[in-house]
Specification:
With 198 residues, the protein is of the alpha/beta class. The protein has a single domain, classed as 3-Layer(aba) Sandwich (Rossmann fold). It contains five helices and nine strands; from the N terminus they run ββαβαβαββαβαββ. The strands form two sheets. A seven-stranded mixed β-sheet has the order 5-4-3-6-7-9-8, with helices on both faces. Strands 1-2 form a two-stranded antiparallel ribbon. The structure holds S-adenosylmethionine. The site of S-adenosylmethionine has 21 residues, from α2.
Length: 198
């Protein structure tokens, strides 16, 4: 059976690799491995998110929801070295890579862990995610219902979703749930959605 990148403990034999994240303001060399999302290059959707989404309108901890090997968390942490950045994933190999990449980049403001290890009282000024669309609509909705309520009253979430994977219907669903959602940008078939707390 095909193993998905959101498996908790990938059985895929380790095949270490690396990805260079090159943006206008940040350059990072990140270790990757088999069994994590987009292990051989920066995902195009992730790039669109990092090039489009601003820092949130208020200061406070940031969350990379579904961090993979850490390109979003580490870019945010490099842009704002004084802000705590939480990076969570259900894939233990991904969490370990993000932790190791943060250490190698000297980004002590990143905490990489499993979702359940984020203390309940931590809330976020910004949530950034290239969410796990392929885990299915019900799982995606559960994930968003779990984390969006943890936005500060003036915080924002930024989600990148491919148009052909349902960005417009996700935006509609978010609005129906009481989270005002707008399209912040669109590039190469990806939409960046900006979500405000309900
Ligand atoms: C599309 S990938 C994005 C990875 C990384 N942020 C990137 O841009 O390369 C989505 C990630 O969400 C993770 N994921 C799936 N279900 C999750 C859950 N319930 N909580 C946290 N992360 C989850 C997957 O393991 C995967 O690493």
């Amino acid at each position: 059976m095909t193993e998905h990148y959101f498996t908790a403990q990938p059985s895929a034999r380790s095949r270490p690799g690396s990805v260079t994240v090159k943006l206008a303001d940040v350059r990072l060399e990140l270790a990757t491995d088999a069994g994590v999302f987009s292990q051989s290059r920066l995902d195009r959707g992730t790039r669109v998110l990092l090039e489009t989404a601003p820092l949130p309108p208020v200061r406070g901890p940031l969350l990379d929801l579904g961090c993979g090997y850490g390109p979003i968390a580490l870019t945010l942490a490099a842009r704002r070295r004084r802000l705590p950045v939480w990076a969570v994933d259900v894939n233990d190999r991904a969490v370990a890579l993000t932790r190791r990449n943060a250490e190698a980049a000297g980004l002590g403001n990143v905490t990489a862990c499993r979702p359940e290890d984020v203390p309940d009282d931590v809330t976020f000024a910004g949530i950034y995610s290239n969410p796990p669309i392929r885990s299915g609509k019900a799982a995606l909705h559960d994930l968003l219902r779990t984390w969006l309520p943890r936005l500060h009253p003036e915080g924002r979430a930024y989600l990148v979703v491919a148009k052909n994977l349902g960005s417009d219907s996700l935006a509609r669903w978010l609005g129906e749930q009481g989270w005002p959602t707008s399209r912040l940008g669109s590039s190469g078939g990806y939409r960046v959605l900006e979500v405000a707390p309900g």
